Predict the 3D structure of the following.
Amino acid sequence: MASSSKQLFQICGRAVLNSYSKAGFHCSPVAVQKLVPNECEGPSMKTEVPGPKSKELLKRLDEVTKNVGAVQYFVDFEKSLGNYLVDADGNVLLDAFTHIASIPIGYNHPAILDVVKDPANLAIFANRPALGMKPTGDYPDTLDRVLLTVAPKGLKRVQTMMCGACSNENAMKQAFLWYRQRERGGPATAEDIETCMLNKEPGCPPYSVLSFDGGFHGRTMACLSLTHSKYIQRLDLPTMDFPMAPFPILRYPLDQFTKENKAEEDRCLEQVLQIIQGRKASGKPVAALIVEPIQGEGGDNHASVNFFKQLQKICKETGTAFIVDEVQTGCLATGTFWAHEAWNLEEPPDFVTFSKKMLTGGYYFKDEFAPDMGSRVFNTWMGDPPKLLQLEAVIKTIKKDNLEATVREASDVLIKGLEDLQAKYPSHLARARGAGTFIAIDGTSPATAAKVVNTARNKGLLIGLCGKETIRFRPALIFQKQHCNIALDILNKVMAEF
Ligand code: PSZ
């Protein structure tokens, strides 16, 4: 972080305060307690987004990467602070999307800057270990102090990884190794060793992982076979012979469709059981099942506590590993540190994978799923220790500032505001829903949803799209009531233009 950042924050705060009150927003410049000092009072727009600077940069980046189809605008990290992202053109935007749900406590949070500035951390920032082979002496304590303090109840083992996809990829591998160990009941035979080098059975067993329609678990080549949210992620790529079950599509409001939703969930559970039994009978067993607590990329699809309890029960009864993908839902996004805490399971999932707000990728797992030998789950970096130090600052901030209460309060305000909006614009908006600040509302068509997101952006609010026609909120954990009110104010103006 350059030494000019403090000055820039102040400039940002003042400039925004002026333009925001000029724009006629009614947000009190005093009284509200900010969780990040000097944070802006509200958005301030100088240009459309993308503005001229972003457009120019886009051309330059395209010359180098030829892969800018998804880049919308460029970000200025020096000037961004708290819940406000500043773009390359100097636009200040209230960020309720946070780099696809990945900034836990906002931009340039003082607690994270302290970690970066601490001379005691210099060596670990300057030198990167190949963690699976040569970790630094403080590493076991760091894992204990950081990742194990927030471990899901009942899980005591953790492996770090580089990203969400490689977390799922390796959790899956550990599940396959576990399955094979049990099936074989002893060490690998000479035939196993010979055939595995030739892509043949029995060394390479025809195992699979069961995933759900609408699920998203990453884009590496094995994870891609579990990912079913958009065709563009899969088109022209070979996938593995992995089965897929339907995920319940619930009708809203939930309390008016209890019977229908229960029937829908039962239908999906029945399919899960049939697939697992069918595959086993045909000699191609399902070794694991993977599920998101709320399908994020697939369109913010929720299911009931009972659905997840039944899934775990089916896994247990059929000897299938139960992997819960908390890459997007983890780290307090849904109001509990792990979304699956809300299910009150009798025993923990076999694996819980994470990344995004956790800053490091990785997964927790039960003892019985530990790899059977060294070098089975391995790559060069296997994680990045400075990210653990940053995560430690996040965890401390969550506790110190009681961000659980902040998320709860923001959740209530945002969901209620979206419900009011949908009551006002029933021909454009539907199905407001969410847990914590993992919140969404549907447009009544894909075009409507896209128009809401794009118009909101030009008015200074960043939200995202997912599924076919879903508008989603993925703010940082420091998104307070006042930020919700600004967001709702902007959305009201957006809808008034429809
Ligand atoms: O288009 C993409 O590749 C996107 S857009 C959002 C994501 C990926 N989310 C990543 C993700 C996730 O939401 C869940 C539930 N599981 C796994 C992943 C993969 O994480 P990364 O992107 O870190 O590999």
Summary: Residues 1-30 have pLDDT under 50 and may be disordered. DSSP finds 14 helices and 14 strands in the chain. The pocket of PSZ is lined by residues 100, 163-165, 168, 216-219, 292, 296-297, 325, 327-328, 355 (CB under 6 Å). The first helix runs from residue 5 to 22.
